Amino acid sequence: MPRTLITSALPYINGIKHLGNLVGSQLPADVYARYLRARGHEVMFICATDEHGTPAELAAAKAGEPVADYCARMWGEQKALAEGFRLSFDHFGRSSSPENRRLTQHFAGRLADAGLIAEVMERQVYSPADGRFLPDRYIEGTCPNCGYPRARGDQCENCTKQLDPTDLIDPRSAISGSTDLEVRETKHLYLRQSALREELRAWIDSKTDWPILSTSIAHKWLDDGDGLQDRGITRDLDWGVPVMRGTEPWPGMEGKVFYVWFDAPIEYIAATAEWAHANGLPESAWRRWWREDEGAADVRYVEFMGKDNVPFHTLSFPATILGSGERWKLVDYIKSFNYLNYDGGKFSTSQGRGVFMDQALAILPSDYWRWWLLSNVPEGGDANFTWESFQAGVNKDLADVLGNFVSRVTKFAAARFGAAVPDGGDWGPLEVEAAENVANGIVAYQTAMDAIQLRRAAQELRQLWVTGNEYLQAAAPWTAIKTDPGRAATITRFAFDLIALYAALSEPFIPDAAAAMRHALGLDAAPWPDDPADALGRLPAGQPFEVPPVLFAKLDDARRAELEAQFAGAA
Ligand SMILES: [Zn+2]
Questions:
Q1: From the CA of 512, how far away is ligand 1's center (Å)?
Q2: Please, which pLDDT band fits residue 570 given cuts at 50, 70 and 90?
Q3: Which range of residues forms the domain containing residue 132?
Q4: Ligand 1 centre from 140 Cα, in Å?
Q5: For residue 331, which phi and psi values (nearest 5 degrees)?
Q6: Ligand 1 centre from 93 Cα, in Å?
């Protein structure tokens, strides 16, 4: 059985994600995972919340909660929304888990042993009143460029000038407001990525099948300016993985934590360990997915992410793995995405612009969103959500094509043949032609899915639904029934076979509708047609069926206008 490990980029913990985040990694990863399971792969599909770092601390402070409580609560909310969108993770973990703590410390120890960690003295702002070093975002003051009084230590929000905290006029702590600030020396660890530059280059150059979007970004970071830079992997914060050299203390690093970008990708591995522990399985159960010397040599590892995450996944995380000198699994294929915009602009939390995951599910069930997002996934370039386009996708693809087909066939059959699938006679030319179109369509659909070209796959799936409608229109069982009931039964039987086939083929994209189709036909499962040429004629005659409730309701113009106004954001 082929084995595929799939990870989705980790959503950051500080709030509910919008539809652009969803379609940028988690949702496409889910479609691919569902497809491979249907094709008989053993799949491990992993995601988790990314919980460390300053933004989590700031969001928790704003919510008036201890950061650990805040993260636990937001993890629960994100997990519930993932379930609402039917994201079929084998495990949805947390980067703050004990598993990730141990693995992050383990990797740091291995890298230090290999001479790939440098200890560097830095000068940073310290606040005696707060009893801590202040990261850039924790320092506020007056912008020296434009005079804006609430500029942050890293950037002025008003004039966008990049700043150092020492540039600010009248700097103060964003936590306590204290102006008693001083510059102190503090030691930090740097990952010597530059020492791994040629090893990383050789590895990336071996990936001749990767999308240009992935390799071009990697090459830019390898070669721009002075080439790949060493990166700080520690911070003077409380919230994070404490710095340890494996299981040993790290002299001079007491009270410091690893920087979030170092521990977050390691959580892919740790979340798989969390999965094993949550299911009472031995260590070998997760290590066989990740250690090539412990059973993972035959695993294909595919990562899904937005383009902004590509540098971390092509360079930083591989540097951690290669530098460890242990045989951890490196990624085999990176599927990266452009951005989804909202009605020509950006999604914005602060301005209430665009649709967020919780709002989407309150408006319509997940299949509606899954279909539009996946058939418009930003693969070739950025994509744009408009309510007009969403309405067209719902009404034309889902309601008029797929929903209408299922409704017409089951209603006609119930009225003319009772509550069981009729016995069909021999196929005529129309059935032969439709079966051939379906077989070709399945091959095209599978080819697109195997290549993870999801926009094309959605088009091929839709075309398969169209084939059924065209067949039904040409065969016209409602006319045949008047003169030749046997012929009408053959047509109806063939159309039922198409519904059973759609239940199997549509499942990766619209799992709830697929389940409703299976349920209407009284099927526990709708197995994938392994032989496209033999995809039809598998439903037994006499199989009881029910007319299902409407699969997809149309979105009318008045409701569309209402939604447009609701999500336009503050002007
Ligand atoms: Zn300014």
A1: 51
A2: low
A3: 117-191
A4: 12
A5: -65, 140
A6: 40
State whether 433 and 519 are in the same domain: yes
CA of 568 to the centre of ligand 1 (A): 28
CA distance 144 to 263: 35
Residues 397 and 523 in one domain: yes
* Distance from Cα 60 to the centre of ligand 1, integer Å: 27
Cα(170) to centroid(ligand 1), Å: 14
Query: How many whole angstroms from 157 Cα to the centroid of ligand 1?
Result: 7
CA 399 to chain centre: 26
Number of domains in the chain: 3
301 shares its domain with 164? no
Q: Looking at the structure, do residues 91 and 170 belong to the same domain, yes or no? A: no
Q: How much distance in Å is there from the Cα of 205 to the middle of ligand 1?
A: 43
Q: Beta strand pairing status for 299-306 and 333-337?
A: parallel
Question: How confident is the model over 141-174, as pLDDT tens digits?
Answer: 999 999 999 998 888 888 888 888 888 999 999 8
Distance 166 CA to ligand 1 centre (A): 14
**Residue in 343, 418, 392, 326 with CA at minimum distance from that of residue 552:** 392
Q: pTM of this prediction?
A: 0.94
Q: How far apart are CA 434 and CA 455, in angstroms?
A: 24
Separation of 340 CA from ligand 1 center, angstroms?
Answer: 30
Q: Please list, in sequence order, all residues whose beta carbon lies within 8 angstroms of the beta carbon of residue 89, skipping any fewer than 6 positions away.
A: 8, 30, 45, 46, 47, 82
Distance 173 CA to ligand 1 centre (A): 18
Tokens representing 113 are 């042993």
The CATH number assigned to the domain holding 59 equals 3.40.50.620
φ, ψ for residue 344, nearest 5 deg? 85, -5
